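Bug: token stream looks shifted between consecutive jobs. Job 1:
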Amino acid sequence: MPRGSQRTGLPEEPSKKIISRTTARELFARLRAEGRKIVFTNGCFDILHAGHAQYLRKAAGLGDVLVVGLNGDASIRRLKGEGRPVQQQRDRAYLLGSLASVSFVVIFTEDTPAKLIEAIVPHVLVKGADWKGKEIVGGEFVRAHGGIVKTIRFLAGRSTTSIIAKAASGNPSKSG
């Protein structure tokens, strides 16, 4: 009987989905030329939870290929403060890559994904519904290139910040 990676139906190695910005630029140019609809979203994804999984599944449904721009460790420290990220970028990227809904993960070091969005030129830019009515980074660029910007509602009561707060309070079993 086959074992390990020889087993039939074993998912792709998640680390193969983690690509560089240079590779992303070339890959997504080719996929666009093939007529594939590219969806882009980004975030910290510090502690992967059900809200993230649902959001990414819905985002993937908006096109053929979902690429996740992942804030690098230094970027998260600048944006979220000391003590963050909880997990290193390579671990966060691996976890994202293990999701069937995620086609590719690209780590970016800047505070915003603007340069990465310009390299990928997605057809659809997606953010959480908490961005509705706000200027979404890269939105103007995507629209100028014929794409659309969408927001997706989050799963209520799920956030990395709330998970960290529950764990710190000593009562992590409390629902939410």
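Job 2, same session, no restart:
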Amino acid sequence: MSGQGRRNERGAAVVEAAFVLPMLVMFFAAIVDFGFILNDLQQVNNATFRAARELSVDEYSGATGCVADPATAPDTEKLVCMVRNFSGRPPAETYVRVVPPASMTSGEQVLVCLTTRARSITGMAEPLSGEIWLKSARYVRIESDEVDVVAHSDTLPAGTDWTWCT
């Protein structure tokens, strides 16, 4: 009788594993996606910080690739280019806003904002990641009187706005 009971239990363990294993795989895939989304958020924050810092000292070393001539391009164009380059995301997927002060003098602050959609690596967060926007806003104090930035605001997709960037 005990041999008969063991055979039935072995079958039950396989059935239980068949139910639990897919849920565990989905759980671990969600953890991986969450990690990649956090990494992307850190990259967005770092991009905004680095570009804002270079703006404050009037140094645009990251403005290559999307500005025809960094030596003659306007400061705003170089700043937007740097934010996009530093973000590590395709330029078409990044949206930048620059809010300069009333007077561009040393000591005043410029606001630099960047937003982009989160992306799913494993596909498990794909239904959610299209709705998650990674956002970063940085105020930076101008340290050089040679900085000349004008307001810039990329057009965001429908359903989103710049109200958080203030």
